[in-house]
Amino acid sequence: MQPNSYTAEEELMTGSVDHSPSRDVLRRRPHDLALASFTHTETLDFPKATKSATTPRVARAIDPITDPRWERFLQRHPRASLFHSAAWLKALSRTYGYKPIAYTTSSAGKDLQNGMVFCRVESWLTGRRLVSLPFSDHCEPLLETENDLQAFTVALEQESRREQWRYIEVRPLTPFLINTELRHTGVAYSFHELDLTPDIDTIFANFHKSSIQRKIRRAEREGLTYREGSTEELLDHFYALLATTRKRHKLPPQPRKWFTNLMDSFGDALKIRVAFKGTRPVAAMLTIRYKNTLTYKYGCSDPRFNKLGSMHLLFWKAIQEAKAAGLQRFDFGRTDAGQDGLTTFKSRWGATQSVLTYGRYGLSDNSTHAFDLQATKWKAKAAKYVLQHLPSGVLSMIGQVLYGHVG
């Protein structure tokens, strides 16, 4: 399948996030979003919860980086992911200057029972907004009851009016709608996750025979070698391939300091995986382990060697390692609407596909910013044409300047 001018494997090299979320915004009425969300494979129990007769709760703000209760809460909560973690928030803050904030109804000094985490994005270029979370595939609201939802809705409405945010954005993993007077728009993505609970032979048998199993075996026959770790040398290989890949797709690379900050924040839980043909690095990916999930975050490759199965080898090594470590899920990340080849590629690993529906809530209908180009496609094409012809060094400088505004 080749929906664009590059293959599914090449689409994969662009990375699983860091495209402007509303590049493919599908504006819908709230009831349309609710209907679309039924395509999920699971739903929160929360919307069906029995109403509590207790006194309405009040949501209050905490600092999720400095408050030790936040990470303890995440370790207990079954839906918490690496994107909620203090380590992820630290990397966002250090790289882009975002200010993380979490809301909870739990009292000061008490263990947290619920929470939603955001970053304050203060941009003169794209506007001031509250996002949960920038450059994150998903960030599930960790709420349990209708009283929780009511308290958080009131807090977000007050925050929106007090701070005059352009919009507040939530990126739930499962269907989530806020009953509010704020204007609501949404954007839909695909999401893939592989269940690691079967034995490793069953997992391999569920891979597509020709496009996945054969490519893994070809990588082995071609004598590709594999290295992993979190060293500066591996980061050099990864970033060189990333810059080349992003330029091929007419996009600037993320700032290098984003990856160094991730490495500092996550330590051994982050791995850069590189495939070599001889001494030449031909493909690389970055994964992060958090609780019982291994998340694929970024990937890149030299297209001249894609036919050798270099990326397939990296995915297989990562899946084997996750299974051996007793992890339960492999997160393939989100896919933008219209990337049918990439959607097919991920599905052929036996991953389950569902729908991510991001929601934006604002005081006006203007819930877009300068990099939401769905309404001005000619500008997007012009920008990509210019980016394609810029030297790599200039592209890197543009990425360092712009990514903080895009979040």
Walk me through this protein's architecture.
It is a single chain. The chain folds into two domains: 187 residues, Aminopeptidase (3-Layer(aba) Sandwich), CATH 3.40.630; 162 residues, Aminopeptidase (3-Layer(aba) Sandwich), CATH 3.40.630. Helix content is 36%, strand content 21%. The protein contains 13 helices and twelve strands. Helix 4 packs antiparallel against helix 9.
- Classify the fold: give the CATH topology of the largest domain: Aminopeptidase
The CATH top-level class label of the largest domain? Alpha Beta
Could you state the CATH homologous superfamily of the largest domain?
Gcn5-related N-acetyltransferase (GNAT)
The percentage helix is: 25-40%
Strand order of the largest sheet: 1-2-3-4-5-12-6-11-10-9-8-7
Q: What multimeric state do the chains show? A: single chain
Mean pLDDT: 83
Q: Could you give a short account of the major beta sheet? A: 12 strands, mixed
Radius of gyration: 21 Å
In total, the number of domains comes to 2
Properties at a glance:
single chain; 407 residues; Aminopeptidase; 2 domains; 13 helices
Describe the SSE topology:
Layout: H1 8-12, H2 30-36, E1 60-62, H3 68-76, H4 86-96, E2 99-104, E3 116-121, E4 129-132, H5 146-163, E5 168-170, E6 183-195, H6 200-205, H7 209-221, E7 225-229, H8 232-248, H9 256-266, E8 270-277, E9 280-290, E10 293-301, H10 310-324, E11 329-335, H11 340-347, E12 352-362, H12 377-388, H13 392-406
Parallel strand pairs: 4-5, 10-11
Antiparallel strand pairs: 1-2, 2-3, 3-4, 5-12, 6-11, 6-12, 7-8, 8-9, 9-10
